[in-house]
Amino acid sequence: MTEIDWHKVHVARLAACCQRAAADLNLSITSPFILNAGEREEHRFVALFPHIGPLNGTLVCLAADWEKLSDIAHTYGYSCVGVLPESCASYDPAKWAAFIKEWDAPPTDA
Fold this sequence. Notes:
Shape: globular
Radius of gyration: 14 Å
Low-confidence stretches: none
Mean pLDDT: 90
Number of domains: 1
Oligomer: single chain
């Protein structure tokens, strides 16, 4: 019996949600997005929304990968968001529009 790779399943679902949200909201997207920046190791993100958020855009990953990927993203001028698998179990247009609006908001001082 074959084991299910849940990380791959969640990445695929998140990619589908990002692509559908981009289409619904008429946004540019690159999915998947690989950040190499001359390093030996490639850093794989689910998607890049180049016109959302600061500087070079917003990179999207699973929440489980955020700690590993967010510093790398920020180093190269991207914002990075981690999405919980439950948020991409099924596509909800209103929820995704709210996510993207939040990602595009200027940062607040805490």
